[in-house]
Amino acid sequence: MEQPTPSDQERTWAALAHLAPLVGYFVLIGQILVPLAILLFGPKTPFVQAHAKESLNGQITYTLYGLGLFLLALTVVGIVLALPLGLALLVLVLWNMVQGALAAGRGEVYRYVLILRLVP
């Protein structure tokens, strides 16, 4: 069964769910709060909800990865590993956010790679 084509407003909200966490990184856990706010207070359409959940799961996972890298950097060996792993994490985060926003603009569903699905 084919899904109905999302409206322009739905596609905008879905893209915002992926890109707004960039601004949220400047506020403590803002990267998690922004997609959560869209999930809770944004349009209640299945399309927007699916994108907001995916973004929220990604941001929670990436925050946990970052915390793990910070703890790893506290060790002598971890200092050497934390920089390249941190850069790889940054590229992964940006890649998934941009790809998710582009997919939302096309009216498609996007699944982030290498994340935990904590919010069903």
Report what the structure shows:
It is a multi-pass membrane protein. InterPro entries: MamF_MmsF (IPR019109). The chain crosses the membrane at residues 20-41, 62-95. Keywords: Membrane, Transmembrane, Transmembrane helix. By secondary structure, this protein is an all-alpha fold. The chain has one domain (6-104). The chain contains five helices and no strands.
Total beta strands: 0
Number of helices: 5
| SSE succession | HHHHH
**What composes the largest sheet?**
none
The average pLDDT is 90
Shape: elongated
| Beta-strand residue percentage | under 5%
Transmembrane segments: 20-41, 62-95
Membrane topology: Multi-pass membrane protein
Keywords: Membrane, Transmembrane, Transmembrane helix
Subcellular location: Membrane
Secondary-structure map:
Blueprint: H1 8-19, H2 21-24, H3 30-41, H4 46-73, H5 76-106
Helix pairs in contact: 1-3, 1-4, 1-5, 3-4, 4-5
Keywords: Membrane, Transmembrane, Transmembrane helix
Transmembrane segments: 20-41, 62-95
Organism: Thermus parvatiensis
Short description:
The chain crosses the membrane at residues 20-41, 62-95. This protein is mainly alpha-helical.
What keyword list fits this structure?
72% helix, 5 helices, transmembrane, elongated, 120 residues, single chain, mainly alpha
